Each structure stands twice: as structure tokens, then as C-alpha cells.
Sequence to fold (612 residues):
Amino acid sequence: MTRLIAIDWGTSSLRGALLDSNGKVLEERSDARGILTVPTGGFPEVFETLFGDWMRLEDTRCLISGMAGSKQGWIEAPYCACPAGRVEVGRKIIDIHALADMPGARIAIVPGLSDEHDGVPDVMRGEEVQIFGAMSITGQDDGVFVLPGTHNKWVTVKKGRVTGFRTYMTGEFYALLSQHSILSRTLDASAPLDEASFLEGVTRADNGHGLLHNAFGARTLALFERMPREELASYLSGLLIGEELRTQSLQAVGEVVLIGSSALTQRYTLALRATGVVTRTLGAEATWAGLHALSGFLDTDLRTPA
Amino acid sequence: MTRLIAIDWGTSSLRGALLDSNGKVLEERSDARGILTVPTGGFPEVFETLFGDWMRLEDTRCLISGMAGSKQGWIEAPYCACPAGRVEVGRKIIDIHALADMPGARIAIVPGLSDEHDGVPDVMRGEEVQIFGAMSITGQDDGVFVLPGTHNKWVTVKKGRVTGFRTYMTGEFYALLSQHSILSRTLDASAPLDEASFLEGVTRADNGHGLLHNAFGARTLALFERMPREELASYLSGLLIGEELRTQSLQAVGEVVLIGSSALTQRYTLALRATGVVTRTLGAEATWAGLHALSGFLDTDLRTPA
Fold:
């Protein structure tokens, strides 16, 4: 029985799963050793520490997605340009011959996707795998897929191929504003989500005055005691997600597929529902299904690092 | 001859000028002791250190604008609601009896302005004085006045009164993004202004995809080496100022009066000129002229602290 070690190796953390030949998860692991924590040349050792025992199981291969394929990662896997489906991405998977004591071991890295809008490039690494997984799980190969996170992705899929996408720094703006701006003095970032204040922010974002102005309202609402301190973080989150939604064309969109942590997909579900858009939500299972769907390419002649 | 000590006491710094009875500047001073550096109850001492020698000149009074009138300042001078002109603001000037060894000294604080949009308050402290000064210098008592800074103000003036204004966190967003975000890794915030990249950012801001998306372009343009590192800060600045301009109604606006530091007013001049709007620029002289214009109220019965 062929097993697959499926890994999403990100900037600040990583997750791995051992899958059986049908893609069923046998075991999961996560770790804080994101690529920024790994010294130059240190990837084989970290990999061995985290997944060496799995690799020594009979007939086991490994496929890695995410920032491990970036310039700062293990091996650079150059971006695959949109439009791209599983086949285009699969053909650009890069083989790694990295482990001295496992010469026959097959470990490979999935490339990210690139797109371009009016001369400005856009990129993703790891999300493409989640999208392929979501298509595999839902059977949906047309539509809009949204992947909330530090750098959110809005992705258009047609006939099983990613035709284009845009990145939004929504998660990073939220962190900057709630931790480092003047707003951090009055809001409680640890307070639980308040749905009413969140949706008030979503609505306010569409008032035509822009984020730079609306964000200041989160300061004055506190100053004039118009909103309780514990609701301000939800309001700010709503302003940001509402700003993101404001620029989307959602009229003709059917169901939106959300892929990510439940804390984030919950917010997008609320905001999209408020505009009349139906959503469906997936979590880590999309990553595992995507890497499983791409694992057939491990039986082909893979590219080697440039 | 009656002299006036005019002070704009801000959050992180302060500026003062000694004016003669005609409002002519005799001497200027600035200092880093903004209100955040002054301990509770410490304002009289800091004032004495910085301006005690001026106060001991014969027939000298003092008028202070800015955050010194906030809750965290010397004495709270409650906001004056818009619409408000010199008379409304002048009548809410607050007297300070603060200096034990100068019992007859007249020192007073100018209130800020408040406005409200759909239940969300907006505030300024100090800018109202600069506007009154600009009106006094230019003779213009109708139009749009823009005060770039950490929290930029766009102000509408009719018949000499501020009828409304909005705050934009443009300066603070620029600082957050250039110093604390992923963009900080690739841009050189100390590089001089590159006008072409700045204006490219201003134009891009109006593409309908919003700041959260466009800001990520400053990352990918660096990643793909499409823009030199030393131009990225100008591009980001253009994206932010363009985002601010995007939400203004500038069709029917005549000359816009810009008040602020030359480093910032230069950028707004470039961006506004690109959209066909004529500008006129004023600096610190607007503050001194505004405080001088309000100084007549020092001869009236002033309010005392609540």
C-alpha cells in the first residue's frame, strides 16, 4: 500500500498528514518550524526530525506545498502561471534528492501560482493545493473560492482550472491596526466575535468613504464611548472584510467555497450571507485532498531543481 | 505692546512662537515634549521650562492649540461642534490659572472641533486653528482645506465657518505598512520621493480593487523585480494618497488649500494636480496666524475648566 506524507509548509508554521493510498488521513502533525525559522541548508534536518519516522514506513512518498517552494524555502519551485489546473501544476512539481540515508526516497515540492493584473503580478503558494482539494471534495469545478488568512485569496475557477486570483492583505492589516496603531489603545483584540458590531463594520465599509477614513471611526467610537471596548475589534474586523467584499463582483456568483480556519471562515460566512451569498466551508481536509490529488505525478518523471 | 505666545502642543512634539501685536513672528521654538511625554500634573513645569522667559516679558499672554486640550492633555477643552467659525471656537476657549509665580498671567487653551457622520464622530485638535489662520492669510473663506499628517483632515469651509470634515489615517497607515508589514522587507523608506512611481501609485489606487489588494502589489512588484527597491516607498505613498483622493468629490472644487509640512504638501500637490485640481500651500505660518486671530478672545471673560 502506497502512503503519502502530505505537508503544507508555511512561513510561520507547518502541518503534515500521513495519508493511505485512498487519501484517508492516518495521522496529523503540526509544528511551529515555519520556513522563516529554518537556517540555510537546514531543511533536510528539520524534515528528518519531524517526518523521518513516517518516511521510513514501507512505500512512502512525500509531497510538500506552501512557502517551502519559495526562494527562501527548501528548493525553489517556480510559479505556474494562470490559467492552471492540476495538470499544469503537476508537471511543474520539483523533485528533491535530499536525504543521505534515504537515497530512494521520493520527496517533491508543488509550485505556487502566479497571475498578473495591469502589469502587477500576484502570487500564491499552498492555496492552489487547497483549491484542487476543495474541487475534489465538493465536485465543484467552477466558481469562486476564497481562502482567508494573513494574505487572503479570491480565486476564480473555470472547468477545473484557476483562471485568475487576487490577494488582499486583510489579515495583515487587521494585525497591524489592532496591535500597532492608535486603535490598539482602545480595542481589546482578545474579545470574542460580536456579530452585530462585526456586521455594522461590514455595512459601514460600503459607505463610499474608504478604509482610511472608516478605520478612524473605530477610534472615535471609543473616544465618545459609543461602542464598548470589547466590540471594537469585531467592528474593525468587519470594516476590513467589508472593504474586501466591496470590491468583488458577487451578483452572478453562486455558492462561494471558503477554505481556512473556522475562526476566519465564520466571519466571511457572516459577511457574505449578509449580502445574500451562500457559502460552503472547508478546513485542513482540502489541503490533504489536494496533495493526494496531485500525488499521481510522483509516479512520473519529475523536474529536478534548476 | 501686547505680545502673544502661540503654541501648537501636539501628541509627540510641540511648536511655539512669540508674536508681536500685529501677529508678526519674533521668535520660534520647537521641542519633542509632546503631551504623551508629560507626566500627570507636569504641564505647568514643562511650560515654565520652555516658555517661562517669554511669559515674563511685559504684557504677554499665551494661547495653546492642539492635543494639550485633550483628556490626556493639560486641561480638557471640550470639542466645539461643527458648523463652527472663529466666534464659536473663541467662546469655548478655556482659561488656565496654572502658574503659582505668575498669578495674573493669562494662558488659555483652544478647543478642537467635532463632527459626526451617520452616528460616527470625527474630531480634530489644532487643525481648526490652522484653518482660521489660512483663511486670515489667503482671504479665502469658502472651499476645501486639506491638512496632511498622521491623521489627515479634509475640511469644508463655507462663509468662514467649518461646516464639516473627515479624518483619514493615511499617514499612520503609511508608517504601519512601511515599518511593520511584509512590505517593510523590500522597500526603502528613507529613499527620496520618486514622482513617477508616486503618481503610478496614485493612478493605481483608482482601479476599483481597493487598498487591501493594491498594497500587496508593492510586495509582488519587488518580488518580480518590476520596480526598484528605492521607488517602492513612493509607490506605496501614492497608493495611499490616491486611495484618499478616490473618495473625495473634487469636480466642483476650486483651489484646494494645503496646510502642513512641505514633505507632505508636495505629495498632495502632485496628486491633486494630476487630477486637475489647483492647490495653494501654507506651513507653520497658518498656525501662528490662527492663534493670533483668536487672541482677541483673551480680552473677554474666558470659560474656566469644568
In short: The mean pLDDT of chain A is 94. DSSP finds nine helices and 14 strands in chain A.
